[in-house]
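Quick one:
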Amino acid sequence: MINVRKEHLLIKYFSNEATAIELGELENWIGNPKNEIILRDFAKVHYAITIGMNDSNSNKTKERLLNEMRRDKNVFRNRKIQSLLKYAALAIVFIGLGYFYQHLPFDLGNKKNVIPMEEAITLETNKGDIQELSNTGSYQITDRSGNILGEQKGNTLIYNKRKNTKELVSNVLKVPYGKRFDIFLSDGTHVFLNAGSSLKYPVNFLEGEQRQVFLEGEAYFDVVHDSKTPFLVGTQELDVKVYGTKFNISNYASDTAIDVVLIEGSVGLNAKTNTSENMLKLTPGFKGAFDKTKKTLATEKVDTTLYTAWMDDNLIFRNAPFTTIIKRLERQYNVIIINNNKQLSHEAFNATFETKKETLELVFEYFNEIYDIDYQIFNNKIIIN
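Output:
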């Protein structure tokens, strides 16, 4: 059982109020392996439940916290004691950010607000005409003759299926950082486009011919099965042949790999550097990754929810490099993050962000409180010192 003195020191540490002498005392205490269980129990039971679960409306917080504990319960056994304290704090912070914001004695008033860049979602026709779209607008999509091809309903474009189409006409939907948009293609296939993505697609597919689209960025596909007309997603270096399925593709230019995560059905992956007809087939629950540098394909079994959480406005990281976290935060919030702390670039974190509820200022304030990450805000830029 933890004594009152050590309990007081831990609370002051979590609140970033401990003095140098107190930190030295606490460091000696947590350096003793015999105190590992005491520390773990305090972080999980006393601090998490007392601070994060006293709210009468916190059932959802409690459920999420318990799920995090079950999933990551083995982490404590394998980490150093110093990392253990950081991990416990981070798990609590990103599960109960809203409650901490209201109850811990942090002064957020001296921090500037981030001003995200504002860019429009655009729809470009094959003739070069560009129409700006809003997430709440309505708009009829027509050809040059005035024929209605589809319509916009809020954050979704819906195309009509037209028979006897003779010419393949393509549109390009571009979604900037900080926004998302959906599209139903003329065959009924549903595509969810993530921030910073672009999809080139036919207004109508030609009967009896392969259905093909081209993706830059990230998208989740729910493809309508049609045995007569295969569906193909093309990227710069990888083709994904679809057999009627649900899958996620991440193909950002700044990333070192193209990731394809299969949720349901079957897909085949073919690197464009591959001269043979052989395709690497995925089964549900697996990820196929194309290394852009080595030009190689590899597969592994993954937790697919980590790759599709963005559709529910969540970002989930498990043992993720800080550089990866920065990239995804930039895309999600449409800001620029400059990291001048090179040592931090090699750190790995576990975190969960609810991006609709948690502002970027709040996320970085807690990084500062727990990891002592010093940063400054200049309009749409965050500079980490």
